[in-house]
């Protein structure tokens, strides 16, 4: 039997078993999101319809501590680039994750805004 490896959730900072967390890799960094945070954010609301919820929660957390590579923000919303991923928040507060094949493609997309 393999030992249980504790992982700290990036969102709520609680510790949990490896089997109860989702690993999210952005560039060379790995972040963990516990099943409680995923369950609490899954459903109607700002993440409605997002299939990559764990990634989105990590990107939102990183945006909150200003860890974007680049970002744009005005009254119509926010877009932040994190490696090859974009976090897009519209003027109503709904979030969307857009992933690209590489960082250059993500940079071209944010520059098109």
What is shown here, in short?
By secondary structure, the chain is an alpha+beta fold.
Descriptive report:
The protein is an alpha+beta fold. The chain contains 3 helices and 8 strands. The protein has helices at about 35-40, 55-65, 105-110, and strands at about 5-10, 15, 20-25, 30-35, 70-75, 75-80, 85-90, 95-100. The strands form 3 sheets. Strands 5-6-7-8 form a 4-stranded antiparallel beta sheet, sandwiched between helices. Strands 1-2 form a two-stranded antiparallel ribbon. Strand 7 (about 85-90) and strand 8 form a beta hairpin.
Strand content: 35-45%
Question: What kind of assembly state do the chains in view correspond to?
Answer: single chain
Secondary structure: helix percent:
25-40%
**How are helices and strands ordered from N to C?**
EEEEHHEEEEH
Round the mean pLDDT to the nearest integer and report it.
93
Number of helices: 3
- The N- and C-terminal alpha carbons lie at a distance of 51 Å
Low-pLDDT residue intervals, each spanning 5 or more residues: none
Shape: globular
Radius of gyration: 15 Å
Q: How many beta-strand elements?
A: 8
Largest sheet: 4 strands, antiparallel
The SS-based structural class is alpha+beta
> Spatial order of the strands in the main sheet?
5-6-7-8
Which key features would you list for this structure?
two-stranded antiparallel sheet; 3 helices; 26% helix; 113 residues; alpha+beta
């Amino acid at each position: 039997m393999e030992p249980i490896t504790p992982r700290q959730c990036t969102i709520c900072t609680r510790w949990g078993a490896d089997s109860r967390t989702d690993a999210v890799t952005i560039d060379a960094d790995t972040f963990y999101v516990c099943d409680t945070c995923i369950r609490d954010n899954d459903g109607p609301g700002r993440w409605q319809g997002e299939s990559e919820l764990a990634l989105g929660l990590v990107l939102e957390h990183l945006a909150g501590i200003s860890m974007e590579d680049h970002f744009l923000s005005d009254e119509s919303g926010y877009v932040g680039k994190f490696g090859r991923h974009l976090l897009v928040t519209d003027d109503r507060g709904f979030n969307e994750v857009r992933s690209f094949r590489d960082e250059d493609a993500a940079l071209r997309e944010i520059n098109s805004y």
